[in-house]
Design brief:
Helices cover about 70% and strands about 0% of the residues. With about 400 residues, it is mostly helical.
């Protein structure tokens, strides 16, 4: 039996068992009864949609590599089921730190699932380069840092709780970018990091799942403006999808559609409208959807050819231009719309208060990105210690290190 397999078998199962035992003990001594925990179920349909989106949608979305399909879906599910339990406990601790009533209910579970989206997005940046032990450690560390960022935004920058949770796209994308910069680059001759028509098809299937359920994701924490959030998100997604096909044909050398463009750009509208989903004017959401697709497709050209080689980044799934750049666009739009709305309410008579509010909004977004970059670099250094047995660069993007294949002669 290969020594690498022995090392894998002696580390991953026991780490999972240890974490699950600790979570079970912590839950036994702290969580309330089931009847108290799930007393409210009004948001369960949206909760189901978000769960489908994260497990099915992102699980298939990450199946872009030709020899990493089992790991993309399997590890995504493992990280989700472990991470949600950790996230529920972190959510409970955050409620305790903010001085609110300490209880676990459906809203707490919803926020835990939404917060796990940051981890799933970051996983796409290091896809194929991190082993399961590294991914589990990354999940735990990233959740801690994300909740710390949420706490800072809520306490010091006065960000509403439902908006602070929605910083998952910004945090997850830039945490993943900083994290992947700490991993060695694969050798030039390695071709396992490319896609095939079959892997692209599965990835687009995941994109469709995410696209369908994104209105529920943006509206699940909206207290009194769920209808506006659903409508604006759907319109933004629709416009971004139309723009994706148009721009893909215009930017391709032969004038044909590129599946990589469609896979990334159709989601840009949902990301860009996250912070402004409650807006009363649907045309603003449609403009954001259009601009999101433009930024995604043009950004993929510029970043892959210029920025990524210069910074030695290998963003495996393109999370920067799929989630990071549209989230930055949405943050800028939120600041501008916030100033305009407050200005109209006060008839532009309190310019100092407008500047003060805009300063807080900008500070919250900058704090999120800065914390994500700094903590991502720190986490990257942690994941590369010898104890975690980093994968050799020649073994990147390969399922056979972790999964059993009864018929190796059959390609996938």
């Amino acid at each position: 039996m290969p020594p690498r397999y022995l090392s894998f078998r002696c580390s991953v199962p026991w780490l999972i068992l240890l974490l699950q035992a600790l979570l079970l003990i912590r839950s036994f001594f702290h969580f309330p009864d089931v009847s108290d925990t799930y007393s409210s179920s009004s948001s369960y349909p949206e909760f189901q949609d978000v769960t489908h989106m994260v497990i099915f949608g992102f699980g298939f979305f990450l199946m872009v590599l030709r020899r990493y399909g089992f790991s993309s879906t399997g590890f995504n599910f493992l990280l989700f089921v472990l991470g949600v339990q950790c996230s529920v406990l972190a959510e409970d601790l955050l409620v305790f730190l903010t001085g609110e009533q300490n209880q676990v209910d459906m809203e707490s579970l919803v926020k835990a699932v939404v917060s796990m989206t940051a981890v799933v997005i970051s996983t796409g940046a290091v896809l194929g380069k991190a082993n399961p032990v590294q991914l589990i450690v990354m999940t735990l560390v990233e959740l801690i840092f994300f909740y710390m960022s949420r706490w800072i935004n809520g306490i010091f920058l006065e960000v509403p709780e439902h908006l602070a949770v929605m910083h998952v796209h910004l945090f997850g994308a830039y945490f993943g970018l900083a994290l992947t910069s700490r991993f060695p680059e694969p050798p030039p001759g390695l071709d396992k990091n490319r896609s095939t028509p079959k892997s692209e098809l599965f990835s687009v299937l995941g994109t469709v799942f995410v696209w369908v359920f994104w209105p529920s994701f943006n509206s699940i924490l909206a207290e009194s403006k769920k209808v506006e959030a659903v409508l604006n998100t759907y319109l933004a997604l629709a416009v971004s999808a139309v723009a994706a096909f148009m721009l893909s044909a215009l930017t391709s050398k032969d004038g044909k559609f590129r599946m990589a463009h469609i896979r990334s750009a159709v989601l840009a509208g949902g990301v860009a409208v996250t912070y402004t989903a409650h807006c009363k004017h649907p045309w603003i959401a449609m403009i954001l959807g259009l601009l999101g697709s433009v930024i995604t497709i043009l950004g993929s050209h510029c970043l892959q050819r210029c920025l990524n080689p210069a910074l030695k980044l290998q963003d495996t799934s393109g999370v920067h231009f799929t989630f990071g750049l549209p989230a930055v666009l949405g943050a800028v739009a939120a600041v501008v719309l916030g100033v305009v709305e407050r200005g109209i309410e006060t008839r532009w008579n309190e310019l100092s208060s407008l500047g003060y509010a805009a300063f807080y909004d900008i500070g919250a977004f900058c704090q999120t990105i800065s914390t994500a970059l700094i903590t991502g670099l720190i986490t990257g250094l942690i994941l590369n210690i010898k104890l975690l047995k980093a994968v050799h660069v020649s073994k990147y993007f390969d399922d056979q290190l972790y999964w059993e294949f009864p018929h190796l002669s059959v390609g996938f």
